[in-house]
Amino acid sequence: MRKIDIGEFQHAVRIAAMVRAVATPLAALVVLLIAAVVPATAQDRGGTYSADELVHTGHKFFGTVSGGLATVIEEAISRYGQPNGYILGEEGGGAFVGGLRYGEGQLNTRDRGRTKVYWQGPSIGWDFGGDGARTMMLVYNLPSVNALYQRFAGVDGSAYFIGGFGMTALVADRIYVVPVRAGVGLRLGVNLGYLKFTPNATWNPF
Hints:
The protein is an alpha+beta fold. The chain has helices spanning 6-44, 51-62, 69-80, and strands at 85-96, 98-109, 113-123, 128-140, 151-154, 160-162, 165-167, 170-172, 175-182, 194-198.
């Protein structure tokens, strides 16, 4: 067995200390980088929108008629929670007992950005007149953009009105779409029908 010289031993100790001195800050730096990146990625993937964010966006979108918007959005969040998407758009339609509604807008999500969407649908019931309005739709439990392209039926008892704004709820496959509309002539008939979302415009409401 080779005898270890005391000088060689001291030299080895110094090298080990240098390695530890370099490795410790590097390991700490790697841990900090992982901690900084991973939470941001997780938050952006399907992240939700707070009431403050939605009210701020809605005020800019609806303009001077947005007085009762905050109360309606707070009511929606108290019922369904925070949405992980929302649509800003315009729609128009008319009805005499039976009616039709057409609209187009932009779906906003944290993980997929912005996507152009269209919607159409029939309605039946005590539904008369015509309207055209800006619409903000809160979208809940949306797993992907493609999951929006289907028919959403009205939820019984979901109608809510205050301060010139109205809210109803539509559902399909545990995905909720909650349209928030401004104006006096709000039509409730869509609550008794459905909306069909499509990636392209179409005149076929069925």
